[in-house]
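Marked as duplicate of an earlier ticket. Keeping the data here for the record.
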Amino acid sequence: MKHLLVTLILAGSFLSVCAQTEIKVEKDTLKDGKFYLNGVTGFNLSQVALSNWSAGGESSYAGNIYLNGTLVRKSGNWLWANALALDYGLTRTETQGTQKVSDKIDFTTQLGYTTNNKWYYTIMGDFKTQFYKGYNYPDKENYISKFMAPGYSNISLGMEYRPNESYSVYFSPVAGKLTFVQDDYLSDLGAFGVDPGDKFRAELGMYLKARAQKTLMENVTAITSVDFFTAYDKSFGNIDVNWDLLINMKINKFLSASINTTLKYDDDVKVLKTAEDGTEIKKGPKVQFKEMLGIGVAYSF
């Protein structure tokens, strides 16, 4: 119940912000047969150099490359919409070497039919995974994730409210969540909610997705999306959450600054703790949060 209340509060706050920041555009601005491409891509770099520094510390380098975009096409009463988010980042220090700090592949596609250009009968599918192996640093021997381990996909039927191309909310009472663990080592551990030895898990449940893109002020753009899912089983009410926020601030023609945050909660992902004897102990699920602030080069389209 506690998890349900927290996620409902988050959902209400998100939708309230979306409603208050909706961009004012004329209705039916989409022209039939034309593709509309929007988004931002770029890379950020940071560096610290120390030499005989009496206060302590060590030199380090960090960088990440990202893309967040949408592609939409309208044809009569049909609307085809796609969203893609990619992110990969590394950091390197003298003592720890190279470590991964961000890794994301997130793609969504949907097809909707409307009679009033606001409400759409929609079928939606999405796919989430990562590019490369992940580790519980400083342990670099035993990986804890990799491409398609995990991989997530939601396939659903529902209704979407899309008053313009900057704001949409989609709800599905019939959604299938598919979890893939295509790795023998992680599968045998029963990672990411699959039974030990299995590489696939299917759940039927309820799904809510919202997305907003807003120009907050001149040269400052925010793109955010949030997913909620709860399964129709004994865990009903324990809501899986995935919330991404990207704020891109253009400094001049070449330079930009960005803030990228991700909040996750998955009832099937247990936190691993290492005991004094080296054995790993599975604890309960926890709220996961990541924040990255960087300065680099970005291109909006």
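See parent ticket for discussion. Residues 78 and 113 are 5 Å apart (CA to CA).
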